[in-house]
Amino acid sequence: MKQKKAQWPWHLLTVVVLVGLAGALYYATSLMSYEWRWNRVPQYFVYQAETSQRAADISTVVELVRKGDVAEVTLRNDAGNEQKLSVADNSLQVARGDDVAEGDVVGVTRQWALGPLMWGLWTTLWLSVVSGILGLAIGLATGLCRLSSNPTLRDLSTIYVELVRGTPLLVQIFIFYFFIGTVLNLSREFAGIAALSLFTGAYVAEIVRAGVQSITRGQNEAARSLGLSASQSMRHVVLPQAFKRVLPPLAGQFISLVKDTSLVSVIAITELLKSGREVITTSFSPFEILFCVAGLYLLINLPLSKIASRLERRLAQSD
């Protein structure tokens, strides 16, 4: 019986390589006299926002009750109208019996709020989801048109695919926003989604076309011999088999789409990378923020890759 080789030396070598890379990075930053400031990073994910509570009129503090970290202040004006405010106890700026003018700050309330990196992550997510769904629909329709026996559908779909794949996405975003968007009065979000969707659709179309053509012609002929129409044969026989084969390249295309959303920052959409660049201007911690941005992109793409791999294995078992 063949003895299985031990794998731990190779895993150990992997750890050594990763530690070496981390050490090389640290040494490179030390040559630049760079000071790491990771303590500045958390506030750009979540932070405690403060909202000033102000007196609505010339009033007097008639009651002040402290309940833990919260102070409840009651103000009464000359007409006898009362205003009740709840503020953080350590931010209280008045005492019982004090007179306050209209607009004076009594204290502040604090609540947790999402920082710019989390808002940028959310923008990247919804841009990716919407563009991915639209791109999949466009790609599926275009891919089938490329296989159509109708010369017009085949020619138009081929022109679209070659035109989009042959030009940079950045140029397409500029065209959609500054030309088409100006003529049709489109918002920058609409222009960005349209450019991403059409760009993704062109690549999905080629993936779909290759997947359908990889299915042997006998499958379609057998379905037609059983009385199915051409559309029924495609929908019930060919496409389900093709989907299993095109799942890996589709997953790769959608992972690329998530990263391609960073290009819409050129039309002032504050997605993840643009949020990171804005944070760098205030934090003066470029490496920390860029590593966090890269980690957030990885946080999106790794589960997507794992889900695609698991789905691929389950579909393979169903054969």
UniProtKB/TrEMBL annotation:
SUPFAM superfamilies: MetI-like. Residues 121-308 form the ABC transmembrane type-1 domain. The chain crosses the membrane at residues 12-29, 125-147, 159-180. It holds the Pfam family BPD_transp_1. GO terms for cellular component: ATP-binding cassette (ABC) transporter complex. It is a multi-pass membrane protein. It is found in: Cell inner membrane; Cell membrane. Keywords: Amino-acid transport, Cell membrane, Membrane, Transmembrane, Transmembrane helix, Transport. It comes from the Bacteria. InterPro entries: AA_ABC_transptr_permease_3TM, ArtM/GltK/GlnP/TcyL/YhdX-like, MetI-like, MetI-like_sf. GO terms for biological process: amino acid transport. Its main location: membrane. GO terms for molecular function: transmembrane transporter activity. Belongs to the binding-protein-dependent transport system permease family. HisMQ subfamily. Part of the binding-protein-dependent transport system for glutamine; probably responsible for the translocation of the substrate across the membrane. This is Putative glutamine transport system permease protein GlnP. The lineage of its organism: Bacteria, Pseudomonadati, Pseudomonadota, Gammaproteobacteria, Pseudomonadales.
